[in-house]
Known about the structure:
The chain has two domains: 6-106 and 147-262, no CATH class; 335-499, Serine Threonine Protein Phosphatase 5, Tetratricopeptide repeat. It is 73% helix and 0% strand. It has helices spanning 6-21, 27-30, 36-55, 59-79, 85-107, 146-195, 201-303, 307-317, 335-342, 358-367, 371-384, 389-401, 405-418, 423-436, 439-452, 457-469, 475-487, 494-499. Helix 13 packs antiparallel against helix 14, helix 14 packs antiparallel against helix 15 and helix 15 (439-452) runs antiparallel to helix 16 (457-469). The longest helix has 103 residues, at 201-303. The radius of gyration is 49 Å and the shape is rod-shaped.
Amino acid sequence: MTQFPSRWIVRIAAVLWLIVVAGGWPPAARAALTDPAQIMNEAYINLVQGDQSLDANRLDEALALYTQAQDYYQRLAREFPGFEPRIIQYRKTYCDNQITDIQRKQAQPTDGYLPPLEARAPAWPSPAAPTTAAVPPAPAATERSVEVDYLKSRIDSLEAELAERDIRQEEIDQLTAANRALEQQLEQARRQVSEHANGNQEVVQSLRAEMAAKDEQLQILQRDLDAKRQLDQALNDMEGKANKWRIMTERLNEEIKTLDLELDDAEIRADQAELRAEQAEKKCAAAQARVAIAEEELQVARAVPPPAAVAKETAKAQTPASTDHSVQRAPVATAPERLQAATRSSVPPRPIPDGLSAADFVRQLLQEGQNEAALATIQNARRAAPSDMNLGLIEGIALIRLQHYSDAAKQLIDLAKQNPRNAEVHATLGAAMMGAGFYDEARDTLKMAIGLDKNLPECQYNLAQLYTFIDPINLRLAKRHYRIALDLGVAPDAQLEEALK
C-alpha cells in the first residue's frame, strides 16, 4: 500500500509523540472520545506510529496500531457519516491494506527455509481478471482554472494506477505461491536424483534439465518481483507529487480570492475617482457662476444711493410749511438689511422664559412646529449677539423649516467659513443648498460634513436622495447612505426604497 514520504512521517510523528508525552490525551479520555475531530486525531496518531513500527520491522506492534486506527475510522464512518468521508475512507483503506501486508509477511517462511519438494507437473495459476477499483466519484463542481482540472485528472489517474498496483500485488502473491510450489518440486527432483543416482543416466539428465528450467523460472519470477517493487516506488513518488499539486491548488484558490477582493476595491476606488473628477468639474462651473452672481450683487450694491442723498431727496419732497421735527424719514436699507427684511417673520418674537437660553428656547419652538415664531425670536436674539455660532446655525435651520433655502444658504456660507471643522454647520448648509437647487454644491458639502462626523442621520439621508435622483446617479452609494441613515434612526422612506430596488 502507498505510504507517506519518510520525512513527513518523521516530522508528524515527532509532533504527535510530543503531544502524547505532554499529556494531550490521557488514556482514560481516549476510550470516551465523542468529538469526531479528537477521534480523527487519535486514529491518525495510531496510523503514524504503525508506520514507524512497520519501518522498524516490529510487525506485531504495527499490526496492533493499524488495527486500533482501523477501529477508529470504522467508528467515524458509522457514527459520523458526514465528517470528512473521503479522507476517512482513504485512511481506512490504507489501514486495511497495511494489515493485509503484515499478515502476509507473518505467514511467509523465514529466509533460507525451503519446503520439501515433491514431483508433480507444474501448474500455473490462471491470472485473476483485473478488477477496476471503485473510485469515488469526483464532486461535480465547476473549477475556476485549467490547472485545477488538470490536477483532478492526474489524481484520478493516480488512483487508477493504485488500483492496478493492488492487482499486481495479487499477481505477486500468486507468483510467490507458484514459486513455493516450484521449490517443492525442485527439492523433490533433487531427492529423486539422489535416490536414482545409480539408475538410468537418461532419467538423471532429464531431471537435471528440469531442475535447470525450474531455476530459470525462479530467476524470471525474481526479476518480475523486482519490477513490481520498482513500480511500487514509482507510485509512491507519484502520490507525493499529487499531494504537492493539491497544496498548490489550494494556494492558487486563495490567491484568486485575494485578487478578486483587490479587484473589487480597485473598481470602487475608480468609481470614486471618476465621481470626484465630475464633481470637481461641476464645482468649477458652479464657482464661476457664483463669481458672476457676486459681481452682479456688487453692482446692485454700488447702485444704491447713500443715506445722505436719500435724506436730501426726502427733504425736497416735503412742503416748506412743514416744520414738525417729529416726522421721521424712512431709512434706506443696505444689502444685508434687505436680506434680513426679506426673511423676517410675519409674527412677533416670543419672550425668552427665565432659566432658558435663546438657543434652547428656539429649538423648543422648532420641535413644537412654531417655525415662524422661532425665526422671529432667533433673529431678535441675534441682534444682541450677531457673532454667536449657535444662534446663526439655529436661524439657518428655521429658514430651512420655512423653505427659505436660498436665504438659509447665503447666511450659512459665512458661518461655515468661520467654522470649517463643524460638521453640523456643513450638514445644515448642504440641506439648504439641496433645497435651493444647487445639487453639486450640496453633495460636496454633505460629504464634507460626513467626513467630519458620520453619525448625522439627516445628512446620510440627504446624500442617499442625491445619489438616487440627481446626476451623477450612483445607486450603490445611495443604498449605503440610506442604510446608515436607517441605523441612525431616520424613518423609512417608501418612495426612496422603491427607487433603490
